[in-house]
Structure formats: structure tokens, C-alpha cells
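== Fold encoding ==
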Amino acid sequence: MPYHSSPLDLAFHALSDPTRRAVVSRLRQGELPVSALAAPFDMALPSFSQHLKVLEECGLIVSEKRGRSRWCRLVPERFDAAANWMDTERRRAAERLDRLETYLDRT
């Protein structure tokens, strides 16, 4: 991915797709085999595996082979950078609105 270099860029890129966000939501309940993750989606397993590859390459999930199945689980700490960035931006926006409110109250 030539346009996504930082871990934050990779995380937001991975989470920009609704299929990948749905996978993350399902994995919040715990690890699952790929077959169970893929079941609700109307796509071929190789196409679904590409979504898992994106999530795994950016470190949001890890997978391991167990017998004949591949199991996936979240790596919760990898979401911290995105959460911290969003918290910082939310605080900045709130501060700007507070300054605007103060300005409007004075005028």
C-alpha cells in the first residue's frame, strides 16, 4: 500500500471498509474461525480472505492455524492510536466551539 505508511494510516484504511468493520465488530465477542467470520457475507472465501489480510497487515487482528481451521482475534492495543487521534481531534473541535461561543457572547 504505497499511500498508507504510518500505523494510523493503515488502521484507518482498514477500517474504512464496511466489511472489515463488521469483522472487527464480530471479533469483539472473541476469536472465531475464518469460516464463521465469512458466513454472513455474500462473497467468495478468497475475496473475504483479502479483507482479513488487510486487517492483519495493519495489526488490528492476528490469525493462527489450528488443525484445518484458521482462527482470528483482535489485537485491542492496535486500536489505541486511532482512538487517541480521534480523542485529540474531538478535544480540539470542542475547544474551537468554546472559543466561538465566548466570542459570540462578547459581541
About this structure: The chain is about 60% helix and 15% strand.
